[in-house]
Amino acid sequence: MELTFAAATDVGRQRTHNEDNFLIDKKLRLFLVADGMGGHAAGEVASSIAVHEIRDAVYGNRDLIDRYRADGAGVQALEILQMLEHAVQAACSTVYNRAQTDSEKRGMGTTASVLLIAGAPDHLRGFIAHVGDSRIYLARQNQCHQLTEDHSLMNELVRRGKLKRDQVESSPYKQFKNAVTRAVGVYASVEVDTFDFDILPGDRFLLSSDGLYAYLDETTLPDVLGQGEVKEVPRKLIEIANEGGGHDNITGVVIRVGDSAAAQAQPKVGEASLKLDALKAMQMFRYLSYRELVRVANSTTVSEHAADEPIFAQGDPGESMYVVMTGSVKLTKGGVTVAQLGKGQHFGEMALIDRSTRSLSATATEDTMLVVVRRKDFYEIIKKEPELATKLLWSFVQVLGARLRKTTSDLSDALHGDKHGVDTTAENLFQD
What three-state secondary structure class fits 349? Predict the structure, then answer.
């Protein structure tokens, strides 16, 4: 999957100097955007220090990236994420220490949005480290996904339900709409968001400062990122921002990955896409953003089963929930077929909340691929991601509530049928 990329920056129409910085390292496949803040050119200094410190820290760990790229080298994605986090922390410390030696630059800081692309040529993975309100977008299959969370006052108010996004311009907080809640260098250390995901052929990325994305239409962004020569795209985006008012500095880095027509030739990548599609179709995950859905997908595995192969038997310990990616699964109890499940349907979800044994048996009825969500991995997500955990548990309660109502209705119908001499079976009474 060949990478092509281009970048551009512009002072905009209302500023006198440019405090944005970007960096592209072709050999490392490292891409950065930083939007500085602070008076007396301090923002420009902060963003410049940040992009170069991060690049140097990543370069110092290039052996780790090379070993990750080599198949079977034993380097885990978590190690790459930790390396990126440490790189941002190193930049934070350097910017902060520089500010302490120059009173005019005291309190300077910068955003930092970092994308590292690593892995084997036919199975690339993206690694993100992020602080502030610059953004990284993914355009995939004609849809636009924001992969980073804005660390801004406005977004925090929206996230907490204190404000709706369309109320920002009319709210009393309007004067603070550019205020960030996290920045690199304001303090000696900072909390860094990290995130990793599979990259598919045809993916398009945009790393953007807020002076650019404020003028973009996310519904048309996939088309803009995919049209013409890649070197022309950043300049086109800057023109859009300046025509819209150019209230701030404008910076964009655009990356294209291979050709979407090559997707069929990449089985691992195709598997990743199928996994996301299967999870996205579930009611349990319907409230999740794309970024949150990918976090869940990262904690799952895929199992393959031939036709008539048992998946688990009645009485086995329950450790995982399953989602059908391809093929079909038959659930039985005491030899009686309870349900036939196809793509996107799930079973065994009770294993996520208790350690009881299986009440049914599950068998593949044709060649089948399943997404496996293990209880211990589900608990890890809940412990580490409070906001995501709230969405998951709320959806889980709704799923169980619907299941309870159906079971109650089925029992009522069965009892009513029994009173009239109707032969009732287990088919409507049980589902794992």
Answer: helix
Number of domains composing the chain: 2
Residues 295, 342: contact at Cβ < 8 Å?
no
The yes-or-no verdict on residue 255 having pLDDT over 90 is: yes
Distances 10 to 15, 20, 249 between C-alpha atoms, Å:
10, 8, 6
161: left (phi over 0), alpha (psi -120 to 50) or beta: left
Picking from 179, 205, 12, 196, the residue whose alpha carbon sits closest to that of residue 111 is 179
Strand ranges in 214-257 using DSSP code E only, listed in sequence order: 250-257
Measuring CA to CA, which residue among 158, 302, 143 is closest to residue 226? 143
Does 365 or 412 have the greater pLDDT score? 365
Q: Are 14 and 129 part of one and the same domain?
A: yes
DSSP string, 29-66: TEEEEEEEE-TTTHHHHHHHHHHHHHHHHHHTTHHHHH
pLDDT tens per residue across span 192-203: 999 999 999 999
pLDDT of residue 345: 87
If asked whether residues 252 and 330 sit together in one domain, one would say no
- The range of the structural domain enclosing residue 312 comes to 266-432
Least confident among 129-138, 144-153, 271-280: 271-280
Residues 6+ apart with CB under 8 A from 78: none
CA-angle at 178, arms to 128 and 32, nearest 5°: 25
What pLDDT is stored for residue 382 in this prediction?
81
Together in a domain, 225 and 333: no
DSSP string, 283-339: GGGTT--HHHHHHHHHT-EEEEE-TT-EEE-TTSBP-EEEEEEES-EEEEETTEEEE
What rounded mean pLDDT belongs to the chain?
Answer: 87
